[in-house]
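So, can you check this one?
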Amino acid sequence: MNNVRGPAPLLLGGAGVTMLTAGAVLTARGLRGKGEIRDELIRQKITFPVKGLPAELARHAGRPVESGAQARLFSDMIGDNVRQATGGRSYSQVSADLQAAGGKDDQLTALRQTAFMGETLRASLMNAYQAAQVTSLAVGLGAVLMGAGAAFVAAGTTLSAGR
């Protein structure tokens, strides 16, 4: 078989090298992001309670929150606790109730503070979870790009060598 002349093998090889490079960068940045998320969660020193966890979280009792998945679980636990404390009402609903009471109800004021703190913590942990999901996507896409890039380089080399 004759080698393929013209720009096709060179273009394939060039596209492959570009994809390999982009994939490596994407993978490295994704892995670095995962490490940063883990480091920040560890610095926060968030630990699942030893007692009082729902049965589905019992295996996490006393363990630190160190991953996006654990941040999601802890966030869900906080959300359940806030809903229980507020009777299923959100911060804005409790705040509206307080406003309707003329802003002078100590119990609603404390409940609004509880809802605010809980929802803020929950949102912060959900951000860690979502960031972890995005970094996983970056690592996966990087690996796919590297694989496709390697295939393009191999195809370009094969075509130009006439194999």
The mean pLDDT is 93. DSSP finds four helices and no strands in the chain. The radius of gyration is 26 Å.
